[in-house]
Amino acid sequence: MKGSGRNIIEIRNLTKKFGSFTAVDKINLKVREGEIFGFLGPNGAGKTTTISMLNTLIKPTSGTATIDGHDMTGEGIHIRNIIGVVPQTFALFPELTGEENLAYIGKLYGLAQEEIKKKSEYLLKEVSLYDHRDRIAGVYSGGMKQRLSLAASLMSNPKILFMDEPTTGLDPQSRIRMRELTKQLNRQGMTIVYTTHDMDEAEKICDTITIMDKGRIAAQGTAEELKHMITKFHTIEVEIENPSKAIFEELKKLSFVEKVESAQNGELIIISVKKKDAVFYKLSDFFHRRKQKVLEIRFVEPSLEDVFIELTKKDLRDG
Question: Which of 67, 124, 160, 309 has the least CB density, counted as fewest CB within 10 Å?
Answer without folding.
Answer: 309
